[in-house]
Amino acid sequence: MVRTLALLLAQLAAAPIVSEMVETGDRRPVDLASFECRDINRSTVLQRVCYDPARHDLVVATGGSYARYCGVAAETVDRLLGAPSMGQFFNRHIRREAAGGRYDCSA
């Protein structure tokens, strides 16, 4: 058993680290290597929230697809994660603000 565990650990140590890439709704790939991601299990709207605090970029999985929001303050992400209804907070304060507005990445 110890030998099997040692072999498994050696294989894990030798495995290359591959960053995760996701494609957003606008067909742009986003490398999540610099993002802190959390799987969400207490929301019917959000499945995953990934945030890059250095770039203030937020990537959110909703309905099985990813969307990217730019210029999102860390305080806003903290409020999202702590909201009683994450879906309502997201729809009111982030998604609505993205369409040609404050969190639109193409602006």
From TrEMBL:
KTSC domain sequence ranges: 43-96
Q: Which InterPro entries match?
A: KTSC_dom
Q: What is this protein called?
A: KTSC domain-containing protein
Q: Which organism is it from?
A: Bradyrhizobium frederickii
